Amino acid sequence: MKQLSDFVKERRKEVNLTQEEFADRSGVALTVIRKIEQGKTNLNMDKVNLVLRMFGHELAPVNSKELNE
What we know:
It is a single chain. With 69 residues, this protein is mainly alpha-helical. It has one domain: 434 Repressor (Amino-terminal Domain). 59% of the residues lie in helices and 0% in strands. The protein contains five helices and no strands. The longest helix is centred in the N-terminal third of the chain and has 11 residues. The radius of gyration is 13 Å and the shape is elongated.
């Protein structure tokens, strides 16, 4: 499974945007983009979803029981 950091960085580069341009378009601070692309784990899910919506994706909590079934 692709890491969030790799996914966002690759997709951002595919659309030929700098981190600053991408932050502006997705409605988050530049620091949010940097944290995501650096693989930081203390991220606000709402902010991450603003970024992922640019690519038609969203994160949601998953019950660990569901993963094992």
